[in-house]
Design goal:
Elements lengths: L2 H14 L3 H22 L11 H14 L13 H32 L5 H4 L9 H19 L2 H9 L6 H26 L3 H8 L4 H36 L5 H11 L3 H28 L4
Helix pairs in contact: 4-8, 4-10, 4-11, 4-12, 6-8, 7-8, 8-10, 9-10, 10-11, 10-12, 11-12
Length: 293
């Protein structure tokens, strides 16, 4: 068998060999079919409600109320005093998000290097450390626990011993995002080029110097990018913690729904849209200023 024939045969074998990506695609297709079979076979899935006129009549009635139709006075989103009142709540929501992402960023910055496996096993220079290995597993479990518990659950627990307001919501969001940002930053350390760190260690540099001159220059751009992205997510998630009296627009959103003030709900949604767009543009500008894009 000639060389090209052997190459063609090996290529055919490689195509027949299942890869992780191919297996993942097949698994996703099977799960998709199973999900649709469940929807069509189960009587309580709610799928048939999409084709009932009553469902669409209720949706139209709800949207018309959100648009302020049928009210004796002007809807809330057309009154300047309502914009002013909810603007104060929007400021509280923005403050909650800044406080939350500040907590998450500070905690992740102080711990993410010790949560990288390459530090404890000696890949960044130095000898493998049993204490470092224990610290690695402790921090990884801590990161997994904080991000596994939803923000709403953290807020429910914190509201029990703190006065309802912005602070419980900020702490709940900060704890949850600490695990996310810390995990992402630790993986950046594991994937970075270890050569600068090894060179510093071989020349007698300490751990702090390695972090300052080898790890931080490579990880800081990614760390700030992750942090800014999570800030955008936190702005949207404040409505979730607000449902349990954690302050801001989210609490007012729950109250407006409870009292059937749907025009007020529309105004709150508009404020959330403005906040999300503002934070999005600000994050893009900050990344551009720091030359991370």
């Amino acid at each position: 068998m000639t060389g090209p024939d052997r190459q063609s045969q090996s290529n055919r074998r490689a195509r027949r060999t299942p890869t992780f990506a191919r297996l993942s695609l097949y698994t996703f297709a099977v799960l998709l079919v199973v999900a649709w079979v469940y929807i069509f076979t189960e009587g309580d899935s709610g799928f048939t409600d999409l084709f009932r006129s009553r469902t669409w009549d209720n949706a139209g009635s709800f949207l018309s109320r959100m648009a302020g139709m049928g009210l004796e006075e002007a809807p809330a989103f057309l009154r300047l005093e309502q914009w002013w009142d909810t603007g104060k709540l929007a400021y509280g929501t923005l403050a909650m998000s800044v406080l939350a992402i500040g907590m998450a960023g500070s905690g992740a910055f102080l711990t993410f290097m010790f949560a990288a496996r390459t530090l404890s096993n000696g890949d960044l220079g130095g000898k493998p450390s049993p204490l470092g290995a224990v610290l690695y597993y402790v921090l990884r479990i801590f990161y997994a626990f904080t991000r596994a518990v939803p923000e709403l659950v953290w807020a429910l627990l914190i509201v029990f011993f703190l006065t309802p307001g912005i602070l419980p919501g900020a702490i709940a969001l900060g704890i949850h995002n600490l695990g996310i940002v810390g995990r992402l930053a630790a993986e950046v350390v594991e994937d970075m080029d270890p050569a600068p760190a090894r060179a510093l260690r071989s020349s007698g540099a300490g751990m702090f110097q390695v972090f300052l001159y080898a790890v931080l220059p490579q990880t800081l751009p990614h760390f700030i990018t992750y942090l800014l992205y999570r800030w955008e997510v936190v702005i949207r998630t404040t409505v979730v913690v607000g449902l349990v009296s954690a302050g801001g627009l989210g609490q007012e959103f729950r109250l407006s729904l409870s009292f059937f003030q749907y025009d007020q709900v529309t105004l709150i949604i508009l404020w959330y849209l403005l906040l999300v767009l503002g934070v999005d543009f600000l994050s893009a500008w900050l990344r551009k200023m720091a030359r991370f894009d």
